[in-house]
């Protein structure tokens, strides 16, 4: 099994050039997270699920951003930098709320 990282972390820049390591047991994943706390959700899954997230070649690093509806918004195989991340998060953000949609707006007719 491997740990899939679904989200974004402040640690991205700090760990960007480190090698990736597969973690194949729940205990190993939990021990890793105790040593390296993450600020995003973690999921333990079989490697066969990688293609489900769009990673057909099962390569690393692989970044998946999930929107507020729990749908994959974007994904990227290979290293990412802060500029890519900012652009991806902006593209995946929900549209601003329209106050008229919530409360109705009345046009003033002159």
Short overview:
The protein is α+β, with helices and mostly antiparallel strands and about 110 residues long. It is built from 4 helices and 4 strands.
Walk me through what this model shows.
With 110 residues, the protein is α+β, with helices and mostly antiparallel strands. The protein has one domain: Glutaredoxin (3-Layer(aba) Sandwich). The protein is 27% helix and 17% strand. It contains four helices and four strands. The protein has helices at residues 12-15, 26-35, 82-92, 99-103, and strands at 2-5, 42-45, 62-66, 72-77. It has a two-stranded antiparallel sheet with strand order 1-2. Strands 3-4 form a two-stranded antiparallel ribbon. The protein is elongated. The N and C termini lie far apart (67 Å). Mean pLDDT is 74; it is low at 1-12.
Features:
disordered N terminus, Glutaredoxin, 17% strand, 27% helix, 110 residues, alpha+beta, two-stranded antiparallel ribbon, two-stranded antiparallel sheet, single chain
Secondary structure: helix percent: 25-40%
CATH names the topology as Glutaredoxin
The radius of gyration over CA amounts to 19 Å
Strand order, largest beta sheet: 1-2
Beta content: 15-25%
Low-confidence stretches: 1-12
Structural class: alpha+beta
CATH class: Alpha Beta
* Overall body shape: elongated
**Rounded average pLDDT:** 74
Largest sheet: 2 strands, antiparallel
Number of domains: 1
**CATH architectural type:** 3-Layer(aba) Sandwich
Tally of extended strands? Answer: 4
How many helical stretches?
A: 4
Cα distance, first to last residue? Answer: 67 Å
């Amino acid at each position: 099994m491997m740990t899939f990282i679904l989200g974004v972390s402040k640690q991205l820049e700090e760990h960007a050039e480190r090698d990736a390591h597969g973690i194949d047991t729940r205990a190993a994943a939990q021990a890793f997270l105790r040593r390296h706390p993450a600020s995003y959700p973690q999921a333990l899954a079989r490697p066969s699920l990688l293609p489900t997230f769009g990673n057909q070649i099962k390569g690393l690093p692989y970044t998946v951003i999930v929107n507020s509806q729990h749908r994959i918004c974007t994904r990227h195989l290979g290293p990412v930098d802060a500029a890519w991340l900012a652009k991806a998060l902006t593209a995946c953000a929900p549209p601003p709320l329209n106050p008229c949609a919530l409360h109705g707006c009345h046009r003033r007719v002159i």
